[in-house]
Design a protein that fits this description.
heterodimer, A: 20 helices, globular, B: 487 residues, two-stranded antiparallel sheet
């Protein structure tokens, strides 16, 4: 195994990092916005292309002496995160005029954190995981504070402090695992867990709880969700979208890696499955109930993302099925993540376009938006319906699929909690729709969307509808990716 | 052929969406043409239907979603038996009537007809889908058009009523989703044909609970006391055409679902629950009728009478025999026609007099003789006068149920007396009685669309009343396998 193969396998991430460097450096010499945006989009395209060739050349395998692995799971997330970054960049073009001075840094940081997220799905060693976790987080801390106004700075600081705390907790969990096994490799830890006796069990459970707590921060699941509403409200809206989709997906990817590969032994998996079931139930309920009373649409979507995290965690809990091992729940989570990415990005893009013009995130100001911006309102409606889980949208299939996994794992009670939560959720999602279609517009002024936002919204809504009507391709891909943890 | 019928309205939707704003008035022509084509195609189906064959006909089957890891195989599976066919004909007929009586819609006509056609597609889908999940999808899609139609084009507390409608239905369907997933896991298929043949015993929850999950959503839709409270609000505040669809077709989704799902798939539990179904049926009949007697608003009066009449459906279902179930099917069809017609007439009165208060109206037969005559016909059909459609279905229900639940049936028959009471009393006060100068300026139904709608419906009511076999034969073939399963 030559080192070149390792570098090759790291290609999709390397392209992003290289372009990030180039963008910042070029900006010192020539300052052209189209150049920055163009090269970031080029980076994303290159990353996608490289990941594509990895699939085509069947380059699955491990790299850098087992720190990193390229398998169907990591490849899936390569595509997902590159896609998310691409859409976020498109959505940022109009918005980034607000911080004209640091354009290049903004896009470079988006690329860097995307690379970090990809690596989170690919690393299989605790040290490497920790490093890429920091890589992702630190770039996001900066991005959250990028507006440099009061709200944004506060959000950035809050995110940084709570993030640091969660990192410490994660690290503690990792240290426990290392102490017990003497290795940082997930595979070695897995062997140790399988051989664990009653003496080490207490420490294992503790490690498990710490890891879930630390990474629960990234997933934004209750009770590690405290940062969400303020950070979502204060951050630049494209970054809010990025956080709600990318950062969350990365959190789930790494949780699946660690829990399924290192802590997957039957002696402990039922413990954390129960824990995740509880987290799922609480997240769904808290997120949905609190979202009802929100008047700021970004905050509302913040709480909604907590609730959605709850639905996703259902998939983590759905592991006790006889056949298929973890792949059953994992395929549910993976499918849901992709569906959710399209949906939530779409919702945020519409919000960016609208709030760019009306300068407000207040739901009350969305009155009559169906007249002022028919297509934006239609797109937002579609995404909100998808979040509610009404067919024929991606969100519906994703929800049914993940609930199906839960039923097959004998978690009927959790599914009941989930479906009842969908009823609650319908209230606040549809309220926005009603506001747009029923209320009289505050002014007759049209709300146009620029070409880049329009394109981004079209991609997102196209995805929502496509997955909703023809889910099979994504379902197959999700199952392939999930088989990594399978029987 | 079925796919054509189900999705043809979407073509109309596309054409309407492409109409330029200055030609938005033409939307009604597109909608009428679309609904007409669907009706013609449906009648073709009705003629081509083989009445000697009991199974599903015109079946179309394709693999739609195929999950490997999870048992998640969903087919695009359409087909009709006699029961489904009757409901499809009813939907197509009322679909056209709904467009015709919306001819004067001035408020956002493009959107209005788009939603109306989408509603038709989802309803046709419900009555033709033979895969339980596909059925559920159409069942859920129907909510969106209804939500918009009531909340935008309704009257009175329209937003509240639309919410209430959506929540009740969504709440019920949440449990249906749990039930269908549990069922699908136990049987490893969602194919209703296969599920009906199987004996379902080992499920994750007791079969009685499963039965409850499944019937709950249908009971809300039918509606069964005490889950009926959405109905008077939604019916009263909806625009006329939507009230027609709501009373005429949407309520039947409940009865149809009970027959197609609950009785067919879980016959053993249905046998045990039979007496409860009868009790609820009789409560519905009597409670509905008594409350109807107290109504002072024309539309509310018809709305509550629907609750009473849906009690007959439930009573017929509880018989679990050939005659009773055929009667229930007949009652669904004829109630759809009769109450649809009543709503049409009330809508016409309201359009002219701008009030629905029975106390204010009087002697309208002088000003609008045609409307009055139609109202008398519809009213007499509603109270079950021989030679009208209402008589046939009610007699069949009582005949079918008497053997099984004698005492309850006798109680139920009282409902007919009460019906006669409120119908005749209403006709007496509104159309007969003193001629008031206040209403002198009102005109009769003169426009072609009004007359077409009235004449067609009256004709079908008499047709079925005089020659019931035309419909009963078809419904019987559909009911037969269900009865055999119950035996």
């Amino acid at each position: 195994m030559g080192d070149m193969a390792s570098v090759d396998r790291l290609g999709p991430e390397l392209i992003l990092l290289a372009f990030a460097g180039i963008i910042v450096l070029t900006d010192l010499v020539v300052q052209r916005r189209w150049l920055v945006v163009g090269s970031s989009l080029l980076a994303v395209a290159g990353s996608l292309l490289w990941a594509g060739t990895l699939v085509a050349r069947d380059m699955r395998g491990s790299a850098f002496d087992g720190l990193l692995v390229v398998d169907d799971f990591s490849l899936f997330f390569n595509f997902l995160f590159a896609g998310i970054a691409g859409v976020v960049i498109l959505a940022s073009i109009d918005y980034s005029e607000r911080f004209s001075r640091y354009q290049s840094e903004y896009y470079a940081l988006v690329l860097v954190s995307a690379a970090g997220m990809m690596l989170l799905a690919a690393t299989v060693d605790l040290i490497a995981i920790f490093v890429v976790l920091e890589l992702t987080s630190i770039s996001l801390y900066v991005l959250v504070a990028f507006l440099k106004d009061v709200r944004s700075s506060e959000a950035g600081l809050k995110y940084l402090l709570l993030g640091a705390l969660s990192t410490a907790v994660t690290l503690y969990g990792m240290a426990l695992l290392f102490g017990l096994s003497g290795s940082t490799s997930l595979a070695d830890i897995g062997n140790m867990v399988a051989a664990a006796n009653a003496d080490t069990r207490a420490a294992l459970v503790m490690a498990m709880v710490f890891l879930a707590a630390g990474l629960g921060f990234k997933m934004a699941a209750v009770p590690f969700q405290m940062w969400v509403p303020d950070v979502y409200e204060g951050a630049p809206t494209p970054i809010t979208a990025y956080l709600s989709v990318g950062s969350k997906a990365a959190g789930f990817a790494v949780v699946m890696r660690i829990f399924f590969e290192a802590l997957g032994d039957g002696s402990i998996s039922s413990d954390w499955a129960n824990m995740f079931a509880a987290i799922a139930a609480i997240s769904m309920t808290v997120g949905n109930v609190v979202a009802i009373s929100q008047t700021n649409i970004k905050r509302m979507l913040g709480y909604s993302s907590i609730a959605q995290a709850g639905y996703l965690v259902v998939g983590l809990a759905a592991i006790s099925a006889a056949e298929g091992g973890f792949s059953l729940g994992a395929s549910g989570v993976i499918f849901f993540l992709a569906a959710y990415a399209f949906t939530n990005l779409g919702a945020f893009i519409a919000i960016i376009a609208i709030s760019n013009r009306i300068n407000s995130d207040d739901i009350g100001d969305y009155g009559g938006m169906a007249r002022r911006a028919p297509l934006l309102a239609l797109g937002l409606t579609l995404c909100l319906l998808s979040l509610t889980g009404i067919p024929p949208t991606a969100g519906f299939i994703a929800k049914v699929y993940i609930f199906n996994a839960a039923v097959q794992s004998d978690l009927v009670w959790l599914v009941i909690v989930g479906v009842l939560n969908s009823v609650v959720a319908a209230y606040y999602y549809l309220r926005v729709v009603l506001q747009m279609y029923l209320e009289a517009p505050a002014s007759e002024e049209r709300v146009p969307a620029g070409p880049s936002l329009g394109l981004a919204l079209a991609i997102a809504c196209g995805g929502v509808l496509f997955i909703g009507i023809l889910p099979s391709p994504l379902l197959e891909v999700s199952e392939t990716a999930a088989r990594v943890f399978g029987s | 052929m079925l796919s054509f019928i189900v999705f043809f309205p979407l073509l109309g939707v596309a054409i309407i969406a492409l109409l330029p704003r200055e030609r938005e008035r033409d939307a009604k022509w597109v909608a009428a043409a679309t609904a007409f084509v669907v009706l013609v195609a449906t009648l073709g189906l009705f003629v081509a239907f083989d009445r000697d064959e009991t199974g599903f006909q015109f079946v179309q089957s394709h693999t739609w979603i195929s999950g490997d890891i999870a048992h998640f195989d969903i087919q695009y599976l359409l087909g009709v038996d006699g029961l489904g066919l009757a409901m499809v004909v009813l939907t197509a007929l009322l679909g056209l009537v709904a467009v015709l009586i919306s001819w004067r819609i001035e408020l956002r006509p493009k959107e209005y007809f788009v939603w109306l056609l989408l509603l038709e597609t989802s309803l046709l889908g419900v009555f033709t889908a033979l895969d339980f999940l596909l059925f559920f999808i159409f069942w859920e899609i129907e909510l969106i058009p209804m939500y918009f139609l009531i909340s935008i084009w309704g009257t009175g507390r329209k937003v509240y009523s639309a919410w209430k409608y959506v929540f009740f239905t969504f709440f019920g369907s949440a449990f249906m989703l749990v039930g269908l997933l549990v069922l699908g896991f136990a049987a490893d298929t969602f194919d209703i044909r296969v599920l009906s043949q199987m004996e379902i015993r080992d499920t994750l929850v007791p079969v009685q609970v499963l039965f409850f999950f499944l019937i709950f959503g249908f009971a809300i839709k039918l509606p069964v006391f005490p889950f009926h409270t959405w109905l008077p609000d939604a019916h009263t505040d909806a625009p006329t055409a939507v009230s027609v669809m709501l009373a005429g077709v949407l309520l039947k989704m409940g009865g149809y679902g009970m027959l197609r799902i609950c009785l067919s798939i879980l016959p053993d539990v249905a046998r045990d629950a039979s007496v409860w179904l009868a009790v609820f049926g009789v409560v519905n009949i009597l409670y509905g009728a008594l409350v109807t007697l107290m109504q002072t608003d024309l539309k509310r009066l018809i709305a509550y009478s629907s609750i009473s009449h849906m009690g007959y459906v439930l009573l017929g279902v509880s018989a679990l025999g050939q005659v009773g179930l055929t009667g229930a099917g007949m009652q669904m069809f004829t109630h759809g026609l009769i109450t649809g017609l009543l709503f049409v007439v009330v809508g016409m009165v309201y359009d002219r007099a701008h009030t629905r208060q029975i106390g204010e109206l009087s002697g309208l037969a002088h000003q609008m003789p045609m409307i009055a005559v139609v109202m008398v016909i519809a009213g007499l059909a509603s109270l079950g006068l021989p030679s009208t459609a209402g008589f046939v279905s009610e007699v069949m229900v009582f005949l079918g149920t008497f053997d099984k639940h004698g005492a309850l049936t006798i109680l139920g028959v009282i409902g007919i007396l009460l019906t006669a009471g409120y119908i005749l009393w209403m006709i007496q006060r509104v159309f007969l009685g003193e001629r008031l100068p206040r209403w002198e300026g009102l005109g009769d139904a003169t426009a072609w669309w009004e007359r077409t709608a009235l004449v067609v419906m009256v004709a079908v009511i008499f047709l079925i009343g005089i020659y019931p076999a035309v419909l009963a034969d078809v419904i019987e073939t559909g009911v037969k396998p269900i009865v055999e399963g119950l035996a």
